[in-house]
């Protein structure tokens, strides 16, 4: 060991430098890449030649779902040499704003709410889809879907996954044992509910607790009924705020929801009184169906993942779903749903390549093959969909009879769609008056 | 998904790099200061050591304050002036008025109750046989984060329908006494008070420890003299103990008040601000980040800042006074 003070200082000063240099060179090390010429890479020839580049992707998809998604694009990444750095966050909606404001925007973000994408499009942070992406998107999705990501005349995003939020989950065994049938009209639905109530079973399960986002399952109820009762045109006007939120037509829809969600004879199977809806998490809410403690549960197609292990989800299994029946036959078969949209904050060639690839049927098929997912892509191979509810959802979305509308609260300004609408519905189930709730939400609509 | 050391290696390496870079910078700084001119050495040293801190303070505190204040007079995306509209909104929206009322409830009840609990406890266990054990019991919650404490209390308040097994302590007690289980967190303003209980649970230990030290610092001669004069225990407390520890009580009160004003984690974890339990800090986050209402969020932030300032000034004053007395 050197002993003079000077040489000690030299050692002390150089040690961090050596560590720095060594560490940096380790981190910049290249990842394993597949041979671009191999047969496995044939599907990706269009996008090759980006070795050594990386693309940052930020989204709200996490855990198992996130892993499946990354497996679905793994081959693409290794064949094209693009390192896709994925980050999923439970605070996506708030943090994406922070990242963009902080000059730290991800290259690509998957927006679960078109309204949020629109906000970034209007502020000029998100970039319009380049030509190649646009072509792929137009080939893959119906106009309805592309419209949700169109701001002005420009397309700002391509759809990714999809879900159907009009599913009514039920137990086929419980239905057949008691001679219940899947209702085709709203009147039949109410008759069925009364029959169950007469048999001493609470017909409906409900739960809207979802941490920060508590209340959203209740907004789905209102949106579904709005769409069925007043038709897609009024629904669009309502979402765009061309009619006030406390319009009579909305109040009528609320009345109908009131008859189910706040009806002590109808809810809340296996959980308690009406008020228990606000404290029951939406994940737990439907489980009493398996114990025949309630008959039906309105929840998105993604609820398939919530059933405990060993539950058969099939038309003749332990649990299955039907589309919430129409109210007014004039409006066809309405379906409400949701999905993510890929928006871009950068237009480097490798970013565009990833964007293009995510819009292809090839990606959709690969993602579907990983399980528990479907999309509204018209060329998605339905045979790759393992789960019968995924297939049902994809078929409903593809059916030309279907009147599809996106989850309305996701299209409203966030202050309403992710704020007062959720909070208002929560307080409504907790006992607030309908008129009071509607005018509370109307008053909170941002003026500019 | 398990923990794989190999996969985490890059992160650990970044950590090492960070620490190394930090040590490097400090090393260079020390070297430079050491080699600096010999004249006016104090001045040099002070500038070198305070400089980085002052710069960071400017960047991390002063600049945000100025920017937030400016934003609070701007529209939702922060690009057009709207005058005082955001402040008008804040004091006219029924929803925000409830938020302000809740914050007031927090600031009135939490510090006072936490300090009182701590003080009474400190007096009661003072010089008792089990003093150290009793003190550690009350102090233990201090080691738990607000989020952790909230999760614990969520279970205390948990509700199961009548007839089924209660998993919440509070409802179990109610059932044992022959009552119906309650949804504790649904009804305002009781729910806000129940949330305040969490803060008291965490902070009472802090109050107790500080106040207990103050009580022990009261000269024995004074208490003995009072005893000889025939003072009863209550008299001893009101005439001797409380006046002697009063400066400490104010310090504790103010410290907890500042904590209370920025309370965010408890509300967010337990109710998410639902059922009319939201407070300013929570609403500010919602407005600015979740709803994209930058102006309204900033106005709430500025208001919170204005509320904290007098407390901080009081705190500094009482600190200075305490130092002068020593």
Automatic annotation (TrEMBL), chain A:
Keywords: Signal, Transport. It holds the Pfam family SBP_bac_1. It comes from Spinactinospora alkalitolerans. SUPFAM superfamilies: Periplasmic binding protein-like II (SSF53850). Belongs to the bacterial solute-binding protein 1 family. Residues 1-33 form the signal peptide. It comes from the Bacteria. Transmembrane segments: none annotated. This is Alpha-glucoside transport system substrate-binding protein.
Automatic annotation (TrEMBL), chain B:
Pfam families: BPD_transp_1 (PF00528). GO terms for biological process: transmembrane transport. It is found in: Cell membrane. Residues 100-315 form the ABC transmembrane type-1 domain. Its main location: membrane. GO terms for cellular component: plasma membrane. Keywords: Cell membrane, Membrane, Transmembrane, Transmembrane helix, Transport. The chain crosses the membrane at residues 12-33, 45-66, 104-125, 137-156, 193-215, 236-258, 294-313. It is a multi-pass membrane protein. The keyword ATP-binding does not apply. CDD domains: TM_PBP2 (cd06261). Belongs to the binding-protein-dependent transport system permease family. PANTHER family: ABC TRANSPORTER PERMEASE PROTEIN (PTHR30193), OSMOPROTECTIVE COMPOUNDS UPTAKE PERMEASE PROTEIN GGTC (PTHR30193:SF18). This is Alpha-glucoside transport system permease protein. It comes from Spinactinospora alkalitolerans. The lineage of its organism: Bacteria, Bacillati, Actinomycetota, Actinomycetes, Streptosporangiales.
């Amino acid at each position: 060991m050197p002993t003079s003070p000077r040489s000690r200082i030299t050692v002390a000063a150089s040690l961090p430098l050596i560590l720095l240099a060594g560490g940096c060179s380790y981190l910049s090390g290249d990842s394993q890449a597949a041979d671009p010429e191999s047969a496995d890479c044939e599907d990706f020839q269009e996008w090759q030649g980006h070795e050594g580049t990386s693309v940052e992707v930020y989204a709200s998809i996490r855990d198992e779902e996130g892993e499946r998604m990354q497996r679905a694009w793994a081959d693409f990444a290794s064949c094209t040499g693009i390192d896709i750095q994925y980050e999923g966050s439970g605070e996506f909606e708030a943090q994406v704003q922070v990242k963009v404001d902080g000059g730290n925007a991800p290259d690509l973000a998957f927006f679960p709410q078109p309204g949020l994408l629109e906000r970034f499009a209007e502020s000029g942070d998100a970039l319009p889809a380049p030509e190649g992406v646009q072509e792929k998107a137009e080939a893959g999705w119906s106009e309805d879907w592309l419209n949700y990501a169109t701001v002005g005349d420009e397309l700002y995003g391509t759809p990714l996954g999809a879900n159907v939020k009009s599913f009514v989950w039920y137990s086929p065994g419980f239905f057949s044992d008691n001679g219940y049938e899947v209702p085709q009209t709203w009147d039949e639905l109410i008759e069925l509910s009364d029959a169950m109530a007469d048999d001493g079973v609470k017909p409906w399960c409900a739960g809207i607790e979802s941490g920060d986002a508590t209340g959203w399952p209740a907004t789905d109820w209102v949106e579904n009924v709005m769409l069925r009762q007043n038709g897609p045109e009024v629904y669009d006007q309502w979402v765009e705020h061309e009619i006030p939120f406390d319009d009579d037509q909305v109040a009528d829809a609320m009345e109908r929801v009131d008859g189910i969600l706040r009806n002590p004879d109808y809810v809340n199977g296996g959980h308690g009184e009406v008020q228990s809806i606000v404290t029951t998490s939406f994940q737990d809410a439907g489980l009493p169906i398996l114990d025949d403690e309630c008959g039906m549960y309105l929840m998105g197609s993604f609820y398939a993942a919530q059933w405990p292990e060993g539950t058969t989800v099939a038309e003749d299994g332990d649990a299955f779903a039907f589309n919430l029946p129409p109210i007014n036959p004039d409006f066809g078969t309405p379906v409400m749903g949701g999905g993510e949209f890929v928006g871009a904050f950068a237009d480097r060639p490798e970013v565009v390549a990833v964007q293009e690839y995510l819009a292809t049927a090839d990606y959709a098929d690969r993602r579907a093959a990983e399980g528990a997912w479907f999309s509204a892509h018209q060329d998605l191979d339905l045979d790759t969909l393992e789960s019968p509810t995924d297939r049902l959802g994809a078929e409903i979305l593809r059916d030309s009879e279907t009147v599809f509308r996106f989850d309305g609260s996701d299209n409203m300004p966030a202050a309403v769609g992710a704020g007062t609408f959720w909070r208002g519905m929560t307080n409504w189930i907790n006992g607030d008056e309908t008129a009071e709730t509607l005018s509370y939400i109307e008053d909170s609509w941002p003026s500019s | 998904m398990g923990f794989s050391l190999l996969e985490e290696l890059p992160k650990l390496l970044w950590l090492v790099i960070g620490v190394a870079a930090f040590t490097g910078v400090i090393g260079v700084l020390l070297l430079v200061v050491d080699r600096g001119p010999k004249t006016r050495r104090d001045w040099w040293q002070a500038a070198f050591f305070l400089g980085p801190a002052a710069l960071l303070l400017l960047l991390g505190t002063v600049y945000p304050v100025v920017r937030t204040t400016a934003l609070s007079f701007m529209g939702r995306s922060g690009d057009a002036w709207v005058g005082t509209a955001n402040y008008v909104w804040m004091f006219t929206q029924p929803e925000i008025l409830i938020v302000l009322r809740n914050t007031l409830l927090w600031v009135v009840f939490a510090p006072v109750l936490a300090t009182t609990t701590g003080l009474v406890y400190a007096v009661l266990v003072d010089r008792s046989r089990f003093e150290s054990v009793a003190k550690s019991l009350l102090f233990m919650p201090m080691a738990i984060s607000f989020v952790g404490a909230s999760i614990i209390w969520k279970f205390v308040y948990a509700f199961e329908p009548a007839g089924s097994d209660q998993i919440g302590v509070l409802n179990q007690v109610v059932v044992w006494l022959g009552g119906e289980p309650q949804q504790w967190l649904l009804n305002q303003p009781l729910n806000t008070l129940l949330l305040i209980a969490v803060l008291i649970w965490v902070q009472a230990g802090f109050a107790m420890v500080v106040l207990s030290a103050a009580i022990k610092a009261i000269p024995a001669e004074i208490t003995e003299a009072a005893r000889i004069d025939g003072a009863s225990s209550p008299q001893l407390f009101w005439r001797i103990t409380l006046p002697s520890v009063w400066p400490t009580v104010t310090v504790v009160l103010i410290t907890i008040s500042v904590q209370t004003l920025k309370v965010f984690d408890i509300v967010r974890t337990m109710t998410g601000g639902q059922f009319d339990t939201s407070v300013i800090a929570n609403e500010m986050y919602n407005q600015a980040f979740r709803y994209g209402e930058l102006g309204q969020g900033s106005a709430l932030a500025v208001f919170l800042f204005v509320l904290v300032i007098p407390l901080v000034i009081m705190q500094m004053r009482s600190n200075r006074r305490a130092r002068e007395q020593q």
